Amino acid sequence: MADEVAGSKKGLGAGAQAVAAVVLVAGVTGGIWGASRVFPQNDADEPAVCSKEHSTRPAKHVSGTQLCQALNRADLPALLGTPDEHAQTAIGNDSVITLDGGTKIATPEANITLKTYSVKLSASNDRISVAQSVHLLPSAEPRQILGHPAVLYSDRTIALTFGSGKAESGPGGIARGLLVARDAKDGGGSFEVDIWRQDDVTPDDAALFRVAEMVLPTLPGWKNG
């Protein structure tokens, strides 16, 4: 999937090199590997609001803006265990992947960046079940969230450094991802929550689960029971 966010690492001033922690997750939601786009940080006291972009999605599917609005909650910092922080960037993005044969799959996502954490929420409208994805994701662990089949897994981020007119990349920290079926029967289609830290410390799984349990039931397309 194409990851659209990069968060500045801790310890760098506004005039220093911009360093981005870029998560490259192993592509069940959206089906492709991607790079990131770096967004300016909001250093004001006011939390960032969700920006709006031109939508290319089929009208019946959840949009990136809707995902962003659901994720950009007032209590998101507390759910992440960093209650004194606020959203520095917030963006929803819509894209469509065309498969062989011409089938189009909408791949909306939202990205929220805080001082400590970055969080991504994405949706898949394909027919791949979460049970099938266990064999496609690195270090996958079957779980359940609110009665829905889920998969917990890890992936490595890539750190991009911009300075002196050059961009350099190197190994970053760990991202933790939680892929969750939209319905209890796991009939296809899923939501995914990913978190990673700007300081390359392994993220807290408890924070990931807290975010998922509060945000997912608020999304269009989520089916209770």
Let me know the average pLDDT: 77
Task: Give the overall silhouette.
Answer: globular
Residues in β-strands, percent: 25-35%
- What percent of the residues sit in helical stretches (DSSP H or I)? 10-25%
* SSE pattern, N- to C-terminal: EEHHEEEEEHEEEEH
Provide the structure class.
mainly beta
Main beta-sheet strand count, sense and barrel state:
9 strands, antiparallel
Overall tally of structural domains: 1
Distance between the termini: 28 Å
- Individual helix count: 4
Number of distinct beta strands:
11
What is the C-alpha radius of gyration, as a whole number of Å? 17 Å
Explain briefly what this protein structure is.
The protein is 12% helix and 34% strand. With 225 residues, the chain is mainly beta.
Describe this structure in words.
With 225 residues, the protein is mainly β. It has helices at residues 64-71, 76-79, 130-133, 205-215; strands spanning 7-8, 18-23, 89-93, 96-98, 104-106, 109-113, 117-124, 141-145, 148-163, 166-181, 190-197. The chain has one domain. It is 12% helix and 34% strand. Strands 1, 2, 3, 6, 7, 8, 9, 10 and 11 form a 9-stranded antiparallel sheet that branches. Strand 10 (166-181) and strand 11 (190-197) form a beta hairpin. It starts with 6 loop residues before the first strand and ends in a 10-residue tail after the last helix.
